[in-house]
Specification:
- The complex is a heterodimer of chains A (396) and B (433).
- Chain A is of the alpha/beta class.
- Chain A has two domains: 170 residues, Rossmann fold (3-Layer(aba) Sandwich), CATH 3.40.50.11890; 158 residues, 3-Layer(aba) Sandwich (Rossmann fold).
- In chain A, 50% of the residues lie in helices and 11% in strands.
- Chain A is built from 14 helices and eight strands.
- In chain A, the strands form two sheets. Chain A has a four-stranded parallel β-sheet.
- In chain A, α1 packs across α8, α6 crosses α11 and α7 runs parallel beside α9.
- In chain B, α5 packs across α6 and α8 packs across α14.
- Chain B is built from 18 helices and ten strands.
- The chains are: A alpha/beta (396), B alpha/beta (433).
- At the A-B interface, α5, β4, α6 and α13 of A face α7, β4, α8, α15 and α16 of B.
Chain lengths: 396, 433
């Protein structure tokens, strides 16, 4: 067994690397990855989900573009949006017009809301030389209806990627990529399960940075990093605090500032589950490696994927129960609704989810943020009061 | 003090008014009459199909608009916000939820029936999906989801058509049959679609009459009346066919006489500015908003809002020979379901074909489907046409977001800018008030 001191240094090193990737808005890692081997492509994607396996199978690096965060000063991007529109599209435009994404061969805009949807068209106008695609997913979950539609969508994406990379995207390559992403998702789930068991050993800001690294790194490298982190964090000796255990929800697109995540924890809450980067664990268990790999990706989307407000819930009796399940699975004591300002999906969904939680006697609070929010004191006070109220008033 | 002048109404306006109040009367007595009710949206509205099941069509968007025109929505929105709905989200949704919370009294003062079916046509607007999930939670009735894919690449693919048709066959029609107890008859649908196509011909003729100088219509403020029947509970009815025939005859007369549009203050005397307008209007101050235009001689010759429930002027007609495919194509082709480059192309086409002096964008706080990207639209149109653009902001039915002085100020500056451009960049003396 290693000494705690060595393990803490290792955790520190891993997280320092993640922090450097997080801070680097020039995406040096991705640039170098592309330059290392001729013919490689980089495909950017916005939250919340794209089938990264297809990009990987085309010899590409999927690059999560999650806005500019708190570090980026948005100057030109603001000229494209009214004040009542969220911040992620404006900082994404800022990344584009300041050439920070000039090495990206294609951009994918998933079906999440009208703002990101319209951004797909803006990208076509503003960056006509870059392949860009609005990536639609079915809201009908029958195999013969939504499934057939989705297989066509995946096939069109496969063709676009083959064209971009100049090489065929074979079934064998897709299967190999699915296997790598299955492994990665299993490790991500393990990290989340580890944190839920021992949140004091895996602070949320660390887990966040670790998951953010998965938006940039090649999947093989990210899986290696997750393994190293699990080993290092398990061995680390960290004090256990008398914090309340909370689930954070509503932050699946525009990301909260890192300080906000730290503030929640500092105020007395252990985050034991979240929806920050759903793409990392969108499929809830392994995607099948047998048979048609594209059909398998479609099957996984229809029947085995995460729930979020951008997805229709056909069965009213099931509405919001995924959140209740997350609370039970992680033994959480409350839910924090943290949503970006002007986020239609999260804010329209919120009252429905809150009613479901109330029906299950699960306490909750809500606040809004922007990716560049600077004032954390109100968040700290609100989350701190919530943590105290859980400790004081909740039934043990 | 002089009393305000009576609003002049054409025969077609009176006809439409009777149609709308007739539909509200039917909704009010639906339970007593044993009629089933479907609630649905304007874009992707499947009225011809709903009629096949003898169901009534109740449109929450239209209720919000009608309540907005009657200045009732401010209180409804505050009620919804009091109940936990965010100040950031769509005010149509909050006006509807607030109305329900306060007893579901419709715009004409009578209680609206609970819907038997929520026909969720998810076309061109993400919010629709959440809106009907919220309504489903309240009404606990059956919901039929029709997911209409977005034209991300600016085209309708066979896969999209096939997906929508399959949903109609396997999801929507079976639910309509089950809820209504009426068996689906495709020939009945064909008859309804044939009537729709006839009305669409006359409707397009009316819209295109604005190419004349002076334009006999205002294609935005007047246009919202013209779209009324075809975008709502009447497409496919004999009433709608008659309405558009009547409207066309009226406009043909105005055209022959060289008259401008009818406004609430009567005939518009002189056409000074021809504008294309992008975005929905504000409803809570609709008359005041319109007045800011006609008082200065500004006529809207084409608008995108009047295409939100179907782009008939680009050649689409409901086709009785391919009924379900035609409904699919209709849903896929609605304005906000088109990608931004297609929207820019369309506006550019309007600018040229309608000889517009400029593009005005009324950016709506509530409506990201329209609003996100509009500043780029403005730049693109200015770049492509060399004509000046202007940008104002308001909201659909939230009176807190309509600032008359600010909007009037901007419009006046804009009209001066157009004058300046006409004068080759030299300043033009201010017009007499």
């Amino acid at each position: 067994m290693s000494t705690p001191v060595t393990e803490i240094i290792t955790v520190t090193e891993i997280i320092a690397r993640c922090q450097a990737l997080f801070d680097d808005l020039n995406f040096t890692y991705a640039r170098e990855w592309k330059a290392a081997v001729p013919g490689r492509i980089v495909v950017g994607y916005m939250p919340f989900y794209v089938p990264r396996e297809l990009i990987h199978a085309a010899g590409g690096l999927p690059l999560g573009v999650l806005g500019g965060g708190e570090q980026l000063e948005v100057i030109q991007g603001d000229a494209y949006y009214q004040s009542y529109i969220c911040r992620i599209p404006r900082s994404t435009i800022e990344l584009g017009v300041t050439n920070r994404l000039d090495f990206v061969d294609a951009m994918l805009f998933p079906s999440i809301c009208d703002v990101i949807r319209n951004l797909s068209g803006m990208w076509k106008i503003m960056f006509p030389k870059v392949r860009s695609r609005y990536f639609d997913v079915p809201q009908n979950f029958s195999d013969g209806v939504g499934g057939t539609f989705y297989i066509h969508e995946l096939t069109e994406l496969r063709e676009m990627l083959a064209e971009a990379s100049g090489r065929a995207v074979t079934d064998a390559a897709i299967r190999a990529s699915i296997a790598l992403y299955n492994e990665n998702r299993a490790l991500v789930r393990e990290v989340y399960a580890f944190r839920a068991r021992q949140p004091w050993k895996a602070p949320s800001a660390e887990v966040y940075l670790l998951m953010r690294a998965g938006m940039v790194l090649a999947v093989e490298e990210h899986s290696r990093m997750l393994r190293e982190y699990l080993d290092a964090a398990a061995a680390a000796d960290r004090p256990r605090r008398d914090n309340s255990r909370v689930v954070v929800t509503g932050a699946f697109c525009e990301q909260p500032p890192l300080n906000l995540i730290k503030s929640i924890e500092l105020s007395g809450c252990y985050i034991v589950d979240d929806d920050f980067m759903l793409v990392n664990r969108w499929e809830q268990s392994d995607v099948s490696l047998d048979g048609d790999p594209v059909a398998n990706l479609a099957q996984a989307y229809l029947h085995n994927s995460a729930n979020t407000s951008a997805k229709y819930e056909p069965d009213p009796a099931q509405k919001g129960l995924y959140l209740v399940a997350a609370v039970k699975r992680t033994r959480a004591e409350g839910v924090i609704f943290a949503s970006p300002s002007f986020c239609d999906p999260a804010l329209l969904e919120r009252p429905m989810l809150q009613r479901v939680l109330a029906a299950h006697d699960i306490p909750f609070i809500a606040f809004k943020y922007a990716e560049n929010s600077g004032q954390m004191q109100p968040i700290r006070e609100q989350a701190g009061t919530f943590a105290d109220s859980i400790k004081l008033w909740s039934t043990p | 003090m002089t009393p305000p002048a009576a609003v002049i109404k054409d025969t077609s306006m009176l006809k439409q008014k009777e149609m709308i109040s007739g539909n509200y009367r039917k909704l009010e007595t639906a339970v007593a009459d044993g009629r089933k009710v479907a609630a649905t949206f304007v874009p992707g509205n499947l009225n011809e199909l709903i009629m096949c099941f003898d169901m009534l069509n109740n449109l929450p968007e239209i209720n919000a608009i009608q309540n907005g025109l009657r200045k009732k929505t401010g209180a409804y929105i505050m009620e919804a916000e009091k109940r936990g709905h965010s100040e950031d989200v769509c005010t149509y949704v909050k006006a509807d939820l607030g109305m329900i919370a306060k007893g579901n009294i419709g715009p004409d003062g009578q209680k609206l029936p609970d819907p038997d079916l929520l026909l969720l046509s998810y076309t061109g607007c993400f919010t629709f999906m959440k809106w009907f999930e919220l309504l489903r939670e309240h009404y606990k009735c059956e919901t039929a989801m029709l997911h209409v894919p977005y034209q991300g690449d600016g085209r309708i693919s066979k896969n999209m058509i096939s997906y929508v048709v399959k949903q109609l066959r396997e999801e929507v029609i079976p639910k309509l049959e089950r809820v209504s107890g009426v068996k689906f008859d495709i020939d009945r649908l064909r008859e309804n679609l044939a009537r729709s196509a006839r009305a669409e011909e006359d409707f397009v003729w009316v819209l295109e009459s604005a190419k004349a100088r002076p334009s006999p219509i205002d294609a935005y403020f007047g246009g919202v009346y013209y779209i009324g029947p075809i975008f709502t509970a009447f497409r496919g009815t004999e009433d709608a066919t008659l309405y558009y025939r009547l409207l066309r005859a009226e406009i043909a007369e105005r055209l022959a006489a060289g008259q401008g549009p009818v406004t609430p203050a009567g005939d518009m005397p002189a056409e000074r500015y021809r504008l294309v307008v992008e975005g929905p209007p504000n409803w809570t101050s609709f008359r005041d908003f319109w007045k800011m235009f006609y008082e200065d001689g500004a006529v809207v010759v084409a608008s995108t809002y009047t295409k939100v429930g179907g782009l008939y002027d680009q050649g689409f007609r409901h086709d009785p020979d391919h009924p379900l495919e035609s409904l699919a194509e209709y849903c896929l082709g609605c304005y906000t379901n088109r990608n931004l480059p297609s929207r820019v192309d369309l506006i550019e086409q309007y600018m040229e074909e309608y000889q517009a002096d400029g593009l005005l964008i009324n950016s709506i706080k509530s409506c990201n489907s329209f609003s996100a990207g509009q500043l780029l639209v403005l730049r693109e149109i200015e770049r492509r046409t060399g004509k000046p653009g202007a940008f104002i902001e308001s909201d659909l039915v939230d009176p807190r977001y309509f600032s008359p002085a600010n909007i009037k100020n901007r419009l006046e500056s804009y009209f001066q800018m157009i004058d300046q451009r006409r004068g080759g960049g030299k300043s033009v003396p201010a017009r007499a008030a």
